[in-house]
Amino acid sequence: MTPRLMSFILGIGLFCGCERSGSTIDTAEPIRGGTETGETGVGGDTGPAPTNTGLVVFHRYSSYDAWDSVLLMVDLADHSLTEISADWDIDHAMNAHFSPDGSQIVFMGDQRGGERDWDLFLWTIGSSEPPENLTENWGTRDEDPKFTPAGTIVCKSNYDLIELDTTGSVVATLTSDGIAIEQSMPFATTDGSQVIYAQGAGEASDFHLIGRDGTGDSVVQGAQDVQEYYPIVRDAETYLFTRWVSNSNVHDQVYLGHWDGTPARALPLNDESSNNSDAFPYGDDAVFFSSTRQGGLGGYDLYVADIDSPSVVSLSAWNPDINTALEELGAAFYR
Question: Hey, what domains does the chain have and what are their CATH numbers?
């Protein structure tokens, strides 16, 4: 394990490597890790506990089409895991993102009993009140919400991009092409002046950068004949994203893109025989990501890795109930 990765994930205790059969999440009380570990990271690293501050939120489902996604949160202060959406009247909650001050999350889901049309929800962390539906009765498919540094929210609404405040009022329209051109997955730059987003789908997808006022739209990443998606701003110089290995090898891989036009590079954490996606920054030099690589518990599992090292550690080492035979995806971190 590299010293940098160790500095991120070294903590105060090690977790148990007990059997997972019959393991359940108690939605009333957080799950806490044990005191010993048998979990081992891919490449032979033993997975210690995480740093002792911060929150990680992610979603879990059996499949995207099953409409059974739930949101879970890991508190790094005590290594607990809680299914935060258990008592909400919301189906298929996913793709959560923290507000700039870490007090709220925004996410997409469907109000239970309503039309399957996607809404955006805002929840104050730790509140006993249910999340607020920001797009209720809009009659649009509202997806992919992300907070901006100013605390507003950029999202996909039908096939275009808009910005709204935390009361659900639209404050800006970034694109207005309608169904003719699909735009999705917006994420504001660190200074909040621009938004990176995916345009198109499949092998025709590329990344564009557009001003928050809807001007200056330009392509920033456009590899030919490969799918590129899930752009996540890392800092003022770089962003993370997911793309195929090639047109003939469509396994997803995590890449590091550069705003100055330096060619993007695949990160050493990748495994070209599995899917690796949904990367999110963890401090200055590490990332959370999801992977279907061998050695996991089935489907996508959550991992952490240094961006400059091939060594990865399963988050099962942090708490044995984080990864399951289902799909764990869309991790976001706040410290």
Answer: 3-334 (2.120.10.30)
221 near 206, Cβ under 8 Å?
Answer: yes
First-to-last alpha carbon distance for the chain, in angstroms, is: 23
Please tell me the distance from the alpha carbon of residue 184 to that of residue 233, in angstroms, as a whole number. 15
Q: What pLDDT, on a 0 to 100 scale, did the predictor assign at position 51?
A: 65
- Give the tens place of pLDDT for each residue, 13-67: 333 333 322 333 333 333 333 222 234 444 334 333 456 789 999 999 999 999 9
Residue written as token pair 């889901």: 109
Average the pLDDT over 303-320 and give the result. 94
Q: 281 in the Ramachandran plot: left (φ > 0), alpha (ψ -120 to 50) or beta? A: beta
Q: How many CB atoms lie within 10 A of CB 174?
A: 23
User: In which band, very low, low, confident or very high, does the pLDDT at 198 lie, cut at 50, 70 and 90?
Assistant: very high
